[in-house]
Design goal:
The complex is a heterodimer.
Chain A lengths: L19 H10 L1 H21 L2 H11 L2 H29 L3 E2 L2 E2 L2 H22 L4
Antiparallel strand pairs in A: 1-2
Helix pairs in contact in A: 4-5
Chain B lengths: L2 E10 L9 E10 L4 H12 L18 E4 L2 E4 L11 E5 L6 E3 L2 E2 L2 H9 L20 H5 L12 H5 L1 H5 L6 H11 L7 H10 L11 H5 L6 H20 L8
Parallel strand pairs in B: 1-5
Antiparallel strand pairs in B: 1-2, 3-4, 3-5, 6-7
Helix pairs in contact in B: 2-6, 6-9
Classes of the chains: A mainly alpha, B alpha+beta.
The structure holds iron/sulfur cluster (2 copies) and FE2/S2 (inorganic) cluster.
The site of FE2/S2 (inorganic) cluster (FES) has 12 residues of chain B, from loops.
């Protein structure tokens, strides 16, 4: 009786097509491109600011006000909300469970806490930026 | 009692004869209250005595009957026929080598379970003539993690393990975390060290597939996330010259 275990091959390129769970995972990982884009975008904005030229800054800002960019930012925002923010907050009670005495704090408390903190911080940043 | 004909498509592989696995079809008359394991036993008893698969308890305790049922890692003693369509595909657990038919080789994870030092480690001597005490609140911290029956369904679901089996993986990490959370244990920093130089927690991308398929609601994904936090804290403690032991 000889052993000859068979290893099933896994495609390195299409493995995530096997089930819906993996597809969603890959869609979530794709947000990294947007993160890279927005990092680059911020660096560009900082470089223009650092150059000290008011005209350049103004034309950069005006260039942002076209419909195309507005749609792009809106889509990016939705993508982040659905693939990062909402799932992440939903999972937060798993990553940081809170136990009071011998009872676990209900998940909903931790989730709601995160949303409250998120809204509070967002409003604060908008206020800092003078948008409110 | 109503029966339904179930068309089972079962993956077969005989290491002495077959180059590669193939599917074989069986038609099984199943009463509605049967589970997949009953159908497989019917095949072996009535249709084909050569079919090899593992099981023991038939009650979600032994952890040996894990298989892919229509692509989902499942305990076959817990998977009811009434919840399934008329055609069911049974394969050995994914991400593991196939020994024969529906039996896989678990050597890799068994070795990983050892690796995480899943026992109470003490720096100081145990209390003399006394047992270690543990309050219900202290037990609650990790009780859920003790429910694991090593069925390895989580490994079959984990994309990270499938792509690179250097990753220690969900059940072994959940087990490590179970001891890290135990108030009687003092081996946390040692365990975190092992995990740090292995393909430990950071390989996990929090897909959460492991927790979704776990038949005992162990929630290994949660344990992994908590270990990431612990690992980061431990790293900074060591950097700053503070030790990270439980007092
Ligand atoms: S964590 Fe769950 S799925 Fe994984 S081996 Fe344990 S019981 Fe099975
Ligand atoms: S959460 Fe981590 S361990 Fe669990 S399936 Fe995903 S990558 Fe694997
Ligand atoms: S036969 Fe024991 S867990 Fe299914």
């Amino acid at each position: 009786m000889s052993r000859r275990p068979y290893v099933r091959p896994i495609s390195k390129t299409t493995w995530f097509m096997r089930n819906g769970r993996y597809k969603i995972y890959v869609l979530r990982e794709l947000t990294s491109f947007l993160v890279a884009f927005y990092s680059f975008y911020t660096i560009c904005a900082l470089a223009i600011l650092a150059s000290g030229s008011v005209e350049k800054w103004d034309s950069f800002i005006t260039a942002q006000q076209c419909t195309g960019w507005a749609i792009f930012h809106a889509v990016a925002l939705l993508y982040f909300l659905f693939f990062q923010t909402f799932p992440w907050f939903k999972l937060a009670p798993k990553a940081m469970p809170v136990q009071v005495g011998d009872k676990k704090l209900p998940d909903s408390y931790i989730i709601v806490g995160h949303y409250v903190a998120w809204i509070f911080i967002s409003v604060f940043i908008l206020w800092l930026a003078g948008a409110l | 009692m109503s029966t339904r004909n179930l068309e089972l498509e079962v993956m077969r592989y005989d290491p002495e004869k077959d180059e590669a696995p193939y599917f074989q079809k069986y038609t099984v008359p199943c009463p509605e209250e049967w589970v997949i394991l009953d159908a497989l036993n019917y095949v072996r008893d009535e249709l084909d005595t050569t079919l090899a698969f593992r099981w023991s308890c038939h009650m979600m305790v032994c952890g040996s009957c894990g298989m892919m049922v229509n692509g989902e890692p499942s305990l076959t003693c817990k998977t009811f026929i009434r919840d399934l369509p008329d055609k069911v595909r049974i394969e050995p657990l994914e991400n593991f080598p196939i020994e024969r038919d529906l039996i896989v080789v678990f050597d890799d994870v068994i070795q990983k379970l050892h690796k995480v030092q899943p026992y109470i480690m003490r720096k100081d001597a145990p209390p003399e003539d006394k047992e270690f005490t543990q309050t219900p609140a202290q037990l609650m911290k990790f009780k859920q993690l003790t429910m694991c029956i090593n069925c390895m369904c989580c490994y079959a679901a984990c994309p990270q393990y499938g792509l690179d089996n250097n990753f220690i993986g969900p059940a072994a990490l959940a087990l490590a975390h179970r001891y890290n959370l135990d108030n009687r244990d003092q081996g946390k920093s040692e365990r975190l060290d092992i995990l740090a130089d292995y393909d430990g927690v950071w390989e996990c991308s929090f897909v959460g597939a492991c927790s979704e398929v776990c038949p005992k609601h162990v929630d290994p994904a949660a344990a992994l996330q908590q270990m990431k936090v612990d690992g980061a804290v431990e790293y900074w403690k060591q950097k700053l010259g503070m030790t990270g032991e439980k007092k």
